[in-house]
Each structure stands twice: as structure tokens, then as C-alpha cells.
Specification:
homodimer; 130 residues; alpha+beta; Nuclear Transport Factor 2, Chain: A; five-stranded mixed sheet; two-stranded antiparallel sheet; 3 helices; 38% strand; globular; Cyclase_SnoaL-like (chains A, B)
């Protein structure tokens, strides 16, 4: 895959998440996907995403930076949302917060096989303390 | 710059940090560098790094993943170290922890002009709680 095609595939994946079009998820995510070292598979990946939407009803993925170097993609995602209760162990309780996720993906045959994600928990804590 | 050349420059930058060769830092970092939205400049950048080494005497930067798409680089850095006291607001107090930093850089004329960094604070907390 060329960098441009990989970037297009990634943008389509993010659109799929924002539409919560779960029937299409296996078009983008491999059945054997590993997330932060855990072999959660497509089913675990779907459960994670559905859990995110339950905890954060107004969740929206916005790509801030995209770096493509096949077979890998790095993306900085921006979230402006109001998690209902605890999020990452922080008692957000419906307050509005803005935070980033810096996340790396490895693709194989146009599907995500590995994810390395870090969410900016310190930024969330700083906003709630402020 | 080609992706390969940018990758080489980045690896040289990390070697410079690991050698604490501060006289060379301005070879890699622009005088007007912006770090996580803060225009800290080369002097602020140097002070940040020197502060890191004071807080974490055995600090070592190890590149786990490197994604180059000029003028941008994304890197997953791995740290295995023992911060002396508090680190990111966590009372580590000399215990050994392993954590990642997912970080993006923008280069201009072979120097770093912007950095977007997220450190995996939740992983540190999980290790200390375990």
C-alpha cells in the first residue's frame, strides 16, 4: 500500500468509528488484532469501542495529525467530550474535557493488526484540577 | 529530506540525548521549538531535558517504533528507569518502572520545531499499584 492509500484507509476507519458502523469494523480490523500488548481480537476490539461509547455518549474521533509510513500509521487524535463517570480512573462525572491520544497502528493486508495507544491522562487531570 | 535521512537524523538526536551531549542539542532542536503547545524555545527544551535527568538519573531513551513521513516523525519511546521522587505527579520514589512515550515531531530544515508528546502515566500507576 502507498502512504496515500494507507492514509485513506485510516480515514475510512475513523469514519466507521464515528458512525458506529460496527458491521463494517472487520473491514478495517484484523480478527487477531493486538491492542497495547493484549491479543483482544476483533470481538474484544468491538467491545472496547462499544464500552467507550457507553462511557462517553458524545465521543467523536478527530484526526489532528496523521503520519503514514506503510505498513504503519501514527495518528494524534483529539477528543472534546464529557465522559459520564470515571474515565481512566479519573472521576470526570460529565464534565467536558479535551485530550489527545497518540496512537500507532500496524497494518497487514489493509487491516489493523497491532495498536499501541497512549491517552493523555495528565491533561484530563490538569483540566479537572484547574 | 527523504524518510531514511529523517530517520537517521532522529536516531542521532536520541543518541545526543542519551549521551547528554547538550552542546550538540541545537544541531537537532530549533531555537523557536514548541513543546505540547508551549513555545519553550531551545533553552526551555534543554532545561526540560536536564530536569528529566535530575529526576531520573538512569534515564535512557530507547526507540521502540519509528514512523517517518517528512517533515514529520512519530516515535514510540520505551523507558525502564527509577525516578527518584514524584514523576508526572506519581510518587514513584525510586521504584523501577517501565513505560512508553508516544511522541510526534515536526522538522524544518533538519531541526525539530514542534513536539506533541504523551507519556503513559496510567501504565506507571498500574505498576505501582500491582
Amino acid at each position: 500500500m502507498t502512504p496515500n492509500l494507507l492514509g485513506d484507509t485510516y480515514r475510512d476507519y475513523i469514519a466507521c468509528l464515528n458512525q458506529q458502523d460496527w458491521a463494517k469494523l472487520d473491514y478495517f480490523v484484523d480478527h487477531e488484532v493486538i491492542h497495547n500488548g493484549q491479543p483482544i481480537g476483533l470481538r474484544g476490539y468491538l467491545e472496547m469501542l462499544q464500552g467507550n461509547y457507553r462511557e462517553i455518549p458524545d465521543l467523536l474521533f478527530k484526526i489532528e495529525l496523521l503520519i503514514c509510513d506503510p505498513p504503519r500509521v501514527a495518528s494524534r487524535l483529539r477528543f472534546d467530550c464529557a465522559p459520564r463517570g470515571e474515565f481512566l480512573g479519573v472521576a470526570v462525572n460529565g464534565r467536558r474535557v479535551s485530550f489527545a491520544e497518540n496512537v500507532f497502528y500496524e497494518f497487514a493486508e489493509a487491516k489493523i493488526v497491532r495498536v499501541w495507544s497512549v491517552i493523555d491522562k495528565a491533561a484530563i487531570e490538569a483540566q479537572l484540577a484547574g
